[in-house]
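Backbones bend. We report:
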Amino acid sequence: MMSPLYGAVEQGPGVLTVAREDNAIGIAAGAALTGHLPVVLMQNHGIGPSLGAIASLVMPYRTPVLLVVHVRTADGAPPAETVLLSKITRPLLDGLGMAVVEYDPATPAADQVARALVSVRDNRTPTALLMPPSALETGGLPA
């Protein structure tokens, strides 16, 4: 789950909890257009419902938004949709033309988010940081 990552950022100013990922992307795009540097925390299950928002709002206008995407993996006996979605998340984002950064377990998660934000801000490139479940363990994030 995204709980440890959300817990690390929820104390910051301007944090909104939005029920649907596509709505969160729309809000983030609006924030980016007003000069903010938004980050959307989401699970890869939300990529499908968000394709329209990404394809019609984020990518054509190079809206500087960072998507931190928790990629649920096929550990244990997962539901069939988890297996499928874990396989297609990266190809979907690549197909949309979004810059994708794969999580590096040798680098602290907070540093990777900060680096991705610099890329979004400086290059005005919508970017997705793909985070595996292991990256969201409390040991990988700042207290």
